[in-house]
Amino acid sequence: MHPALSIVFFTTASGAGFALLFLLGLAAPLGLLPQSGWFGFVALATAFILAAAGLVSSVFHLGRPERAWRAFSQWRSSWLSREGVMSVLTFVPAAIFGIGWVFFGETGGLIGLCGFLAAICAAVTIACTGMIYASLKPIHQWHNRWVVPNYFMLGLMAGFLLLDLMIRFWVVRPVGTPLLALLTVLAAWWSKEAYWRFVDTNSAPSTVASATALGSRGPVRMLEPPHTQDNYLLQEMGFRIARKHKTRLRLIARITAFLLPALLSLVALLTAGGIGLIAAALAVISAALGLVIERWLFFAEAKHTVTLYYGAVAV
Are 154 and 294 in contact (CB under 8 A)? Predict the structure, then answer.
C-alpha cells in the first residue's frame, strides 16, 4: 500500500496522544501523579494536541476532505466511523477531567470518574484505529491477530515515554514511570517482532491459481498485464518496497524505536536531575523517529489481493 505521510502521522500522533490520555485518566485519580494544576495542564495539553493533530491530518488523505463529516454516520458498519465517533466522545469526559484538575486541583470524585471514563474511551479509540486495518480481509499483512495489540502497545510505549519526560519537571527522581516505560518498550518490541515474524512466515491464501480457479491444471501466471501504465489501484495498492530496503528500514526501526529508548529509559531510571531529564528527552525523540519508520513500513509492506490481477503471483 502507498504509505501516505498524512496517515503515517495520524496513526503515530493520535496513538501517542490517546495513550497518554489513557495513562493520565487512570493514574491521576489514583494519586499516582503530581497533583499540580500546571502538571495537569502540560500533560493534558500534550495529549490533546497530539490526538487532535493526528485526527486532523487523517482528513488530508481523503479525496474530498469537506465530506469527512459523513464518516461519522456509518458507525454501525465501519471501524473508521467508530474510531471517529469514539475520538470525539473521548474529548467530552477528558475536557471535564482537565477543567477539574487544572482549574480546581481536583482529581477525585466526579472529576476522577470522568478521568476513568476518558481513559476507557481513549483505549477503545486506539482499538478502533487498529481495527480499521485489521478488518480488511484483502490485505493479509493487516488482517491478523497482531495488528490491534501492536497499535495499543506502541501507543502505550509512546505515552509512557512522554509521561516520564514530563514528570521529571516536577519529581526529582521518579522510579515508577521510567521503569514502566522500559518494560513497555520491551513489550512493544516483542509484539512488533512477533508481527514481523508472522507476516514473513505466512502468506495470504489467495494466489493467481486460486483467484482464477485454474490451480488444478498446473502452474498459473498472467499472460499479459491488464494495463500498459499505472492506474489508481496500482499507485495506491500496488506500492512495492525492495527487500533490501525493507531489511534496512526494519533494522533502523529496531534501533531507534526500541533499542535506544530502552537503553535511555534504563539510564533515566538509574539517574536523576539533568542526566535523567536528557536521557528521557532523547528516548522520546528516538522513539518518535522509530515509530514513524515503523508505521511507514506497516503500510509499505502491505499487499492488496487486487495486485494478483496485475501480475503478482501471491500476496
Answer: yes
Q: CA 312, 195, 19, 90 torsion: positive or negative?
A: positive
Give the integer Cα–Cα distance in Å for 107 and 130.
30
Q: Which three cell numbers stand for residue 204?
A: 495470504
The residue extents of the domains of the chain are: 1-135, 173-315
Place of cell 536523576: 272
Closest CA to 29 of 123, 114, 155, 125: 114
Asked whether 300 and 3 are in contact (CB, 8 A), the reply is yes
Cβ atoms of residues 37 and 103 within 8 Å:
yes
First to last CA, the chain: 12
225 DSSP 8-state letter: -
- Distance, CA of 294 to CA of 154 (rounded, Å): 10
Instruction: State the amino acid at position 287 in one-letter form.
Output: A
Instruction: Tell me which residue has cell 531529564.
Output: 277
Using CA atoms, how far residue 222 sits from 54, 184, 214, in Å, is 41, 46, 12
Amino acid identity, position 270: L
Please list the pLDDT of the chain residue by residue as tens digits (315 residues): 677 888 899 899 999 999 999 999 999 999 999 999 999 999 999 999 999 999 888 877 766 766 667 777 778 888 988 998 999 999 999 999 999 999 999 999 999 999 999 999 999 999 999 999 999 888 888 889 999 999 999 999 999 999 999 999 999 889 999 999 999 999 999 999 999 999 988 876 676 666 666 665 667 666 666 666 666 666 666 677 767 788 999 999 999 999 999 999 999 999 988 999 999 999 999 999 999 999 999 998 888 777 777 666 666
Residue among 12, 258, 43 nearest 162 (CA): 43
Q: What is the pTM of this model?
A: 0.91
